[in-house]
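About this split. The held-out portion is used to measure sequence recovery: a designer receives only the structure tokens and must propose an amino acid at every position. Recovery is the fraction of positions where the proposal matches the reference. Here is one held-out target exactly as it appears in the evaluation file.
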């Protein structure tokens, strides 16, 4: 089959009343739209039931207790790909959790889209804060999701979003409208840093070769404000242990004369940032790419309601680096957070003790062109330098990831823009994301491919938190938008 037989015909154009980008549909495309919409309509209840089945599997990658469930999650994704119509799908073993790989080949003349997603989820803890059990998906209405949202761990991050791709693919296969080749690579270790995926992509470089990578694992601005993610922050994560006296001491007998590791750790942490929210580690900002005033102005046009942001979180004020807006603080600027801190006596009542040890997990979100390995060394050296001699300090690095940006002039980005505009009826806004997907930078390094971050979640969907959810609107909109991405991409690819 040649691409021309799929794509050529007399085009007609449509322009929106808001004067946005001109949409050009080929007649086949128009037919595809109706066929896909009808297919979704006819099968929407089954789509949801199938997603529920996947959500019931507690595929928590961080906790070995769930290893069998993680595997069951992988098997379930594989089966769903086979049912949807791939030529083949299999599990690939890694030193950690398996990768699900599947593909559908049509023609050498057509482009290949590699879909990446993850079937693993974050731990559900603290479970007592969930209103409904995390692995029993439940539909409830919320003010942001008046049509209902699916409440379950992984509903948005990323099973719900990943599954949209499986169902969009099924819809294209079943309506005979798949315009290009597709490969699926769905991993089970994203939430623990994708440690073994780097080896996998190097080893199977040829198998997963593609023209573009498509990922739905990010958020849009709002359900009436579609956006396409144009970058992600990187991550540097480390654990610090301070060791003081060789044993927990009586704080009356020794207090005031022996360094208390918790006191010292608190001071070290407090000293990481100054009163303007600037990180005080020497060299930390050296590689930070300065975003031009022009670009900042452009970014500031994305709607953001600070009052809504604060009231949603029930906080009276925001906090961060002086001179930057809240949106900028979470996207184009790095940040530092203590993720956990422990030590000493935390039981009932009061125990007078000068503890022997104190620990903290500290993470830094990074922006282009900061490098996690370099930052980790800067942080470790800095902590060693400023820690008083009264304590020993041990710094253990964890997984990290490089920041990424997606240029909006690529045909992948254009296809994403057109697809979103098509289904939402308005042009999507380019927006950087604050979270991290470590493998995206490796896709660039190893495969030379940029990823298109076409996410349909919302930041308010409680990712990683109790009561994580995903809007039904978002789920079905995603299934509708993905086939259009395929079509726009294939057309733009042919023109290139
Ligand atoms: N899907 C998220 C990343 C994300 C969320 C990007 C929202 C943009 C907007 C992903 O599953 C995630 O949670 N990543 C981790 C990284 C990691 C190494 C565990 C993160 O960002 O903390
Ligand atoms: Mn995710
Ligand atoms: Mn996540």
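Reference sequence for scoring:
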């Amino acid at each position: 089959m040649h691409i021309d037989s799929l794509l050529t015909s007399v085009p007609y154009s449509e322009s929106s009343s808001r004067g946005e980008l001109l949409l050009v549909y080929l007649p086949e495309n128009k037919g595809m739209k109706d066929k896909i919409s009808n297919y979704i309509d006819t099968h929407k209840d089954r789509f949801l039931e199938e997603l529920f089945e996947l959500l019931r599997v507690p595929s928590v990658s961080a906790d070995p207790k769930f290893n069998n469930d993680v595997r069951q999650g992988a098997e379930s994704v594989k089966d769903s790909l086979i049912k949807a119509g791939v030529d083949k799908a299999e599990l690939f073993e890694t030193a950690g959790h398996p990768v699900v790989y599947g593909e559908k080949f049509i023609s050498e003349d057509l482009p290949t889209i590699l879909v990446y997603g993850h079937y693993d989820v974050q731990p559900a803890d603290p479970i007592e804060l969930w209103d409904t059990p995390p692995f029993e998906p439940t539909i409830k209405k919320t003010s942001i999701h008046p049509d209902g949202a699916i409440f379950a761990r992984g509903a948005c991050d990323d099973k719900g979003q990943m599954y949209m791709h499986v169902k969009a693919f099924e819809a294209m296969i079943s309506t005979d409208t798949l315009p290009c080749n597709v490969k699926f690579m769905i991993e089970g270790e994203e939430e623990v840093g994708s440690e073994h995926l780097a080896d996998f992509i190097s080893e199977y470089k040829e198998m997963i070769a593609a023209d573009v990578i498509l990922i739905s694992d990010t958020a849009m601005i709002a359900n009436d404000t579609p956006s396409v993610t144009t970058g992600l922050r990187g991550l540097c994560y480390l654990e610090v242990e301070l060791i003081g006296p060789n044993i927990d001491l009586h704080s009356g007998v020794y207090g005031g004369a022996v360094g208390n590791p918790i006191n010292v750790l608190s001071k070290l942490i407090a000293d990481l940032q100054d009163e303007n929210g600037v990180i005080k580690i020497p060299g930390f900002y050296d590689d930070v790419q300065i975003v031009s005033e022009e670009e900042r102005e452009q970014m500031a046009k994305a709607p953001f309601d600070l009052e809504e942001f604060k009231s949603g979180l029930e906080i009276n004020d925001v906090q961060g680096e002086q001179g930057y807006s809240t949106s900028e603080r979470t996207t184009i600027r790095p940040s530092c957070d203590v993720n956990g801190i422990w030590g000493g006596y935390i039981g009932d009542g009061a125990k007078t003790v000068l503890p022997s040890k104190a620990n903290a997990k500290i993470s830094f979100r990074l922006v282009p062109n900061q490098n996690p390995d370099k930052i980790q060394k800067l942080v470790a050296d800095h902590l060693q330098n400023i820690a008083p001699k009264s304590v020993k300090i041990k710094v253990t690095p964890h997984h990290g990831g490089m920041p990424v940006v997606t240029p909006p002039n690529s045909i992948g980005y254009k296809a994403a823009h057109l697809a979103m505009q098509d289904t939402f009826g308005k042009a999507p806004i380019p927006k950087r994301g604050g979270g991290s997907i470590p493998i995206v930078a490796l896709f660039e390094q190893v495969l030379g491919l940029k990823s298109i971050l076409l996410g349909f979640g919302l930041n308010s969907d409680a990712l990683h938190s109790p009561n994580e959810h995903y809007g039904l609107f978002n789920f079905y909109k995603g299934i509708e938008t993905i086939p259009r991405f395929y079509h726009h991409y294939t057309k733009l690819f042919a023109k290139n």
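Annotator remark: The domain at 234-288+334-401 is CATH 3.30.70.360 (Alpha-Beta Plaits).
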